Amino acid sequence: MNRYIFFILTFTIINSAFGQILDNSLFRIYRAPFIHGAVTHLRFDSNGEYKMSISEIHCSLCDMQELLNMINSTGTWQQYSDTITLTSNQNKVIKMIIVTDSLIKPCFPLGYDISEKHDSIKAKIIDNNQKNGLQDFHLIYDTYPNGVARFIIDRYRARMSEYEIEIKPDGTIKKVDYYWDDKKSNRIR
User: Fold this and answer.
1) CB-based contact 180:186 (threshold 8 Å)
2) What's the sign of the alpha-carbon dihedral 104, 109, 114, 120?
3) Rg of the chain over CA atoms, in angstroms?
4) List of domains in the chain
5) To the nearest 5 percent, what fractions of the chain are helix, strand and coil?
6) Which residues, in sequence order, are CB contacts of 143 under 8 Å at separation 6+?
7) What confidence tens digit (pLDDT) does each residue in 21-62 have?
8) What is the mean pLDDT of residues 68-89?
9) How far is CA 88 from CA 1, 70, 174, in A?
10) What DSSP character marks residue 173?
């Protein structure tokens, strides 16, 4: 009986300490289409580390260095049930909700300090952030445990032509889907 309880406790601790979202992946990369004028990537590694970085800046009037300081970060991540907690090397904590395996939403708007705001204003800011989906992170790159790509998805940004590639464990292409203006297409345009 004691062994059974020990096994259940060990399994629970291991499952909550390591990322279930990675399942059998070496790493995954998610993309948010528009955080303060920037396309942002979030990489989760199986060793519990993460890296958030800007891949494209679409804001010509923004202070680029301030934008980089606000968004770029590295640190550790942990998943508990449907919540991911990112702890940066500067001890900033960001909580995210796992909606599906391919969609993660931040609990609070990234890059805003809403601690000094009134509760009604906080609620409006959070509600607007959840509704517009610009800070939602969509899966764009998934791997097998050996590091070979499983999915490569070029979608969820301000482009008309998009694609999804599914790859077999041996590295050969299983299928390719093309999209034009969010509708499936026979070819890339």
Assistant:
1) no
2) negative
3) 19
4) 2-185 (2.40.128.640)
5) 20, 45, 35
6) 25, 26, 27, 28, 149, 150
7) 888 899 999 999 888 888 899 999 999 999 999 988 887 777
8) 92
9) 40, 12, 37
10) E
